[in-house]
Amino acid sequence: MTPFLAYEDKGADSPRLPLVLIHGHPFDRTMWAPQVAAFAAERRVVAPDLRGYGASPVTPGRTPLSRFAEDVEDLLDALGVDRFVLAGLSMGGQIALECYARFGDRVRGLVLADTSAAPETSAGKAARAAMADRLLAEGLRGYADEVLEKMVAPYADPEVKAHVHRMMTATSPEGAAAALRGRAERPDYRPLLAEVTVPALVVVGEDDTYTPVAEARSLHAALPDATLAVIPRTAHLPNLESPAAFDEALAAFLARVEAADR
C-alpha cells in the first residue's frame, strides 16, 4: 500500500531504535533537516509531512489531532516501523501525545519539544478560528512576516530565519486552516502524562514565548520518568536555532532509552 503521507526515511539498515520526527505548524518535514543529518548515520529516521503540509495531500475543513495520529500510525505500519522513539515539536508534540494514547505500546521513548498538554482555552479557540479564516482569505505570507521572530528568536541565524519563513509561506492555507480548527478542539492530554511508562525528554527554547519554560517544567514534573533540557538563546524552534545543543540532548536521551530497552 502506498503511504498517504509524503515522508523522508533515512538510515533504514540500522539495527538501532528508529527515530520518528513530527513537525509543527505551519511547517513541513524539512524542519527536522539538522536532526535527519545528525542521526540517520546511526539509526533509521522517519520524518513525515503531516496531512495538509509539505508534499502531503491537503484535506480542507477540519483535521483533528486524532486524524494526524492515524496518518502517522498508517505510515509506520506501511514502512514496517514497529518500535521507535517518537519526537514532536509544538503541534507535533501534541500529535505525539495523541500517538502515545493510541499506540503507546510501540513507543520506547517520547520527546516533547516546545509544546503543551493543556486543552485550548475559549479565547484560544476563537483566535484559532479567526486565524483559520484569515489564512484562507489572505494566504500565509502576512502571517509568516508577523510571527517569524516569535517562531525563532530575533537574533537567530539569517539562514535559519529564511528557512522558517519559506516553510511557512509554502504551506497550503487550506491545510493550515484545517489543522488550526482541529487543534482548537484538542483534548486535555495532562492526565495522559502520568500514564507515560517510557522515558521522556522535554525540550524548550529558553526564549520561547509560545510555550515558555514554565510550561515545559510542568510537563517535566507530570511525567514519571523525564529529563528537561532548556536550550539557551533560542525561541520556539531550538532544533533549528541551536541544533548542536538540541542534538546533544537528544543523543543523550536516545542512549538512555536504548540502555533501558535492552
From TrEMBL:
UniProt KW keywords? Hydrolase
Q: Which InterPro entries match?
A: AB_hydrolase_1, AB_hydrolase_fold, AB_hydrolase_sf
Q: Which SUPFAM superfamilies match?
A: alpha/beta-Hydrolases
Q: Name one Pfam family in it.
A: Abhydrolase_6
Q: Which GO terms describe its cellular component?
A: membrane
Q: In terms of domain of life, where is this protein from?
A: Bacteria
Hydrolase keyword on record: yes
Q: Name one GO molecular function term.
A: hydrolase activity
Residue ranges constituting the AB hydrolase-1 domain according to the UniProt record? 19-248
**What is this protein identified as?**
Alpha/beta fold hydrolase
Source taxonomy: Bacteria, Bacillati, Actinomycetota, Actinomycetes, Kitasatosporales
